[in-house]
Write the structure tokens for this entry.
Amino acid sequence: MKFWHKYHPDIDAADPRFKQVSLIYSILLIMIAYFAIIGTLNITLFYAPEIAFFDYLGLVLALIIFRFVSRGGNFKVASWAVIVSIAAVLLAFVHLAEGRNYSLMWVTILPPFAFFLLGRRNGSWVSAIILVYCSWYLYQLIQQQVTANLGLGALFNFIEVATAQVFLFRFYENSRQEAYDQLQKTAITDPLTKVYNRLHLDNTLKSLVAQANRSHQAVSILLLDVDHFKAVNDKYGHLIGDKVLIRLCDVVRETVRETDAVGRWGGEEFLVICPNTDQQQAIQFGQRIIENIRAEAVEKDVHITVSIGAATYSAGATDSIDRILSSADENLYRAKRGGRNQIVGGS
Ligand SMILES: Nc1nc2c(ncn2[C@@H]2O[C@H](COP(=O)(O)OP(=O)(O)OP(=O)(O)O)[C@@H](O)[C@H]2O)c(=O)[nH]1
């Protein structure tokens, strides 16, 4: 377990912010230790109090950011503060050394931090600005012949390495972000129908019910089941059965609002979660779904019908989420018993 976990108990290893937060704290600890040690050495051993002043300034800055982030401060702000601090330290180093002592080499460590903490766009900008500035500064040094052994060759090599760094890290960050987005999508999607899976529906329902309580609104659910689907499979085969389910989901998605969540509850059962929707509106929605599916040959000449059980959660109600789901399930059972191809609501 990471030491910073006590400050952010809600961020576990599965959280996308985990690595970013780890890096922020690691950089801050390194900065604190580095500035404390080097600052003290500069005073006691090297008799350079003017440099020690900047070291202690860096130390205070790192402590302030540490305090800010450990007390629940915004990670985006903390990330920017860390990158600006690193950039300031690097630029101060380059200026103090007047380009000597490989100081410019250190500047090339900025892009990986900037891309990882700030993302593709801001990472590119920050890296480009610092690297262009350093190239310009190096050019000035060469022109004024301030530093021995610094020629145009050094400048060109610096520009080439810096440009390669930015492109490589941008490429890496692009691939990482795409792979992460793809993984996120797969984790919440049903592989056959491409609607949400049950895990995501569970989470969505929980968060929409909490939101409904805060905004004093209702949330409705529609539990939808294909009628006599076994007969479709038996008559046309499983492959056509699969295509029917895929097309059915498309029709449901085309019928409901953008804000409604459509997902597969299991087998040939689907759940639609409608935020900000009362019982009467939910019944109207459900009716429209039934009509659209009935009107459509979902696969070649295969026609199907669906039955729907509706249930509504009103803000402040004492019903649990399980209670709403079982209420929808009971209504679905009644719709089936009542002859199918219909919707039943109420509790
Ligand atoms: N093709 C296909 N069939 C599935 C899938 N998931 C579940 N099924 C089938 O769906 C059928 C469900 O059958 P039943 O539970 O008897 O329900 P039903 O025939 O729809 O009858 P009612 O619900 O009472 O109207 C079974 O034959 C399952 O094999 C799937 O992903 N693809």
